[in-house]
Amino acid sequence: MPIEPRRKSATPCRVHLPRTRNPVLLALLLSLGAQSLGAPSLGAQSLSPQSLGTHTYDNVTASLSPGDVIRIVVWRKPEFSGDFVVASDGTIIHPLYREVTVVGVPLNMVEERVRIFLTRYETNPAFVISPLLRVFVGGEVRQPSIYSLPPGTTIAQAVALAGGPTERGRLDEVLIVRRQDREVVDLTRADTRAVSMETRSGDQLFVGRRLSFFNDVLAPASSVFAAVATVVSIVIQLRR
Question: Which domains are present in the chain?
């Protein structure tokens, strides 16, 4: 019986990651590659059902927020194609797309609104939209910054894309700030759901720092003692 060839995804996603010799970061990169190849992943864990709702990130549950980026590619229409920032009023910052509201609605509805708008200029427009969510990754990472990430990017992948943890970074203490909620997760254990938690628009991720007795205790104490000694020396000289 002939074997049917494996069907390729309609919208393949390739992520290029930096080389590293850090074993923990290497594990994160391998996890990223495994998920992009279709390997089974653990279920995501939300911070609180009231503020986060379901963890499934698809065209029905995902939505854009101000500051996010929406990538629109229209076939043979370069004037309608590009990466556009979502304005504070929920519209797309573009002279023509400005009338299209994209905040607070599912992505499938965003796609339909863009389609209706483009039919003014073409009967059957061929286009693709890709949302990019704004996520800040900081703390003890090598490249702290604000990143525009596709929906479905996990916390572990976001940390890896930020260059991974520094020598003093603690992947077992990663703080997630999401709206009014805060939670510390452990990314070093592959058997926990925290490894596959997905990022959301506006998330702030902070990798904790491992304490050093010399840098965090001895050096500051020495500076304080030196300052006190200087003050005492000045007072003694003034009294002479």
Answer: 24-41+133-209 (3.10.560.10)
20/225 Cα distance (integer angstroms)? 40
pTM above 0.90, yes or no: no
CA distance 127 to 124: 10
Question: Number of C-alpha atoms within 13 angstroms, CB side, residue 19?
Answer: 0
- Give the pLDDT score at 236: 74
Contact 118, 127 (CB under 8 A): yes
Structure tokens at 177: 């700030």
Average pLDDT per 10 consecutive residues for the chain, totaling 240 residues: 45 41 46 37 35 40 86 94 96 94 92 96 94 96 96 94 96 94 92 86 95 58 66 73
